[in-house]
Amino acid sequence: KKAEAWSARFSEPVSDLVKRYTASVFFDKRLALFDIEGSLAHAEMLAAQGIISAQDRAEIERGMAHIRAEIEAGNFEWLLDLEDVHLNIEKRLTELVGDAGKRLHTGRSRNDQVATDIRLYMRAAIDDILALLNSLRGALTDLAEHNADTIMPGFTHLQVAQPVTFGHHLLAYVEMFGRDAERMQDTRRRVNRLPLGAAALAGTTFPIDRLRVAKTLGFEDVCHNSLDAVSDRDFAIEFTAAASVLMMHISRMSEELVTWMSPRVGFIDIADRFCTGSSIMPQKKNPDVPELARGKTGRVYGHLMGLLTLMKGQPLAYNKDNQEDKEPLFDTVDTVLDTLRIFTDMASGITVKAENMRAAALQGYATATDLADYLVKKGLPFRDAHEAVAHAVRACDDAKCDLSEMSLERLREFSPLIEQDVFAVLTLEGSVAARDHVGGTAPNQVRAAIARVRAQLAE
Ligand code: ARG
C-alpha cells in the first residue's frame, strides 16, 4: 500500500528507521486543533474566491467536525506512516469526504501550514502564560499586603545591608514578573501574523485572499514575504528568550525561598504540600518545588540555545530542520505554565516567621546608613559622617552590641552632633519608614505600590 502522499515520485519505500527518524506525528499531533482551524479558514477562503466549490467547502467542514470529535474523544488513529499531524488529518479527511478532502491542499503547502499552526499554538500559549503571570503577581501582592510592615534584613553581597519590609521584597518580584508579561505581550505581536498563502516558498498561482484568512484566524496582519513566512522561526526564539528571562526570575525567587526555609535562616515555612521528605532521614522536609523550578530553568535556557542553533545555518527558505522547533517549544510552554501555576498556589502556602526576620535585621548594624544620614542632616558632609559611623560600628563590634544599644555619651565620642533624637533613627521601624518616596521600602510606599499593581492587574 502506498501510504506517502508523494509516493508516485519514488521507486522504493523508506526504511522503518528513516520513517521513524523523519516522522513528527508523535509530538506535533499536539497542533491538531490548530491545524484544523487553519484548514477551515483556508477552505472558507478557497470557496469565497471560487477556487473550490461551496459544496466542497461544506464537505470539508463536515469531515473536519468529525475529525475534531475523534481527536477530542481520543480515538483518532495517528499513523507514523503518515509522518506528521498535517498528513494524518488530510488523509482522514479524504477517507471521510473523498475528493473534497483532496482539494483542501490547493494553493497551500505544509510549509506555510505548519508555520501557521505553530503561530496559532503560540498565541494561545502566550495568552495562558499572561493569565498565569497575572495570577502569580496577584498572589505575591496579597502576600506583600500582609507583610507591608514586616521587617527583614535587606542584603547586598549576602551581607546585612539595610532593613527592608518583606512586602517590599516581594513586590520586587511582582515588578519582574510584570516586565515578563510585557515581553510576552510584545512577542505576541510578532507571533500574530499569518504565513498561510506563502505556500511552499514562492506564493501560489491561485487567486487567494490572504487578508481574509488572516481576519478569520484573528491574525493582525499577514507575513509580507513568502520566503520569510515559511522559513524563519525568530518569533519562537524570541518567545523562548522571554521565557528564559521569566524562568531566571523564578529561579532567583526559588533560590531565596530555599534559603529562607533553611533552619539556619528560618524566615519562612513552605506548606507541606509543596515539600517532600527523605527516604532515609526521618526529620527532613525539603523545599522540592522551588529547587525543581531552579533546575527547570536550565532546560528552558537549553531550548533557547537549541532553537538559535537550529536556525543559524539554514539557507532560505524552508528546511526540514525546522521540524525540530516543536519539542523545545512545547517543553518551554509546559515548563513555564506548570511553574507559574505551582508558584501561584505556593504563594498562599508560605508562612512568614516575622520574629526571625526581625531578629536577623537587628544583627549586622543594618541602621548604620541611617546614622550617617542623621549626621548629614545635622550638617556633616556625607564622607565624614560615613567615617564617624564606621568607627562607631567597630566599637560596637568590640563591645558586642548594636548601635542602638550604645549610650548617648558613648555615641557622642564619634560625633558631638549626636543627640537624644538619634535613637528614633536607629530603630528598624524608623529606618524603613524614613525611606518614604516612590520605590522606597516605607510601609506606606509599599501600600501605594500594591494599589498601583492591583490597578494594573484589574485592567
Ligand atoms: N512536519 C513538518 C514540520 O514540522 C511540516 C512541514 C514539512 N514540509 C516539508 N516540505 N517536508 O516542519
UniProtKB/TrEMBL annotation:
SUPFAM superfamilies from the UniProt entry: L-aspartase-like (SSF48557)
Family annotation (InterPro entries): Arg_succ_lyase_C, Argininosuccinate_lyase, Fumarase/histidase_N, Fumarate_lyase_CS, Fumarate_lyase_fam, Fumarate_lyase_N, L-Aspartase-like
E.C. designation(s): 4.3.2.1
Compartments reported by the entry: Cytoplasm
UniProt domain Argininosuccinate lyase C-terminal: residue ranges: 365-433
One Pfam match: ASL_C2
One term of GO molecular function: argininosuccinate lyase activity
Catalytic activity of the protein: 2-(N(omega)-L-arginino)succinate = fumarate + L-arginine
Family named by the database record: Belongs to the lyase 1 family. Argininosuccinate lyase subfamily.
Originating gene: argH
PROSITE patterns: FUMARATE_LYASES
The Fumarate lyase N-terminal domain, residue ranges: 9-302
Protein name: Argininosuccinate lyase
Pathway: Amino-acid biosynthesis; L-arginine biosynthesis; L-arginine from L-ornithine and carbamoyl phosphate: step 3/3
Keywords: Amino-acid biosynthesis, Arginine biosynthesis, Cytoplasm, Lyase
Keyword Cytoplasm on entry: yes
Main location: cytoplasm
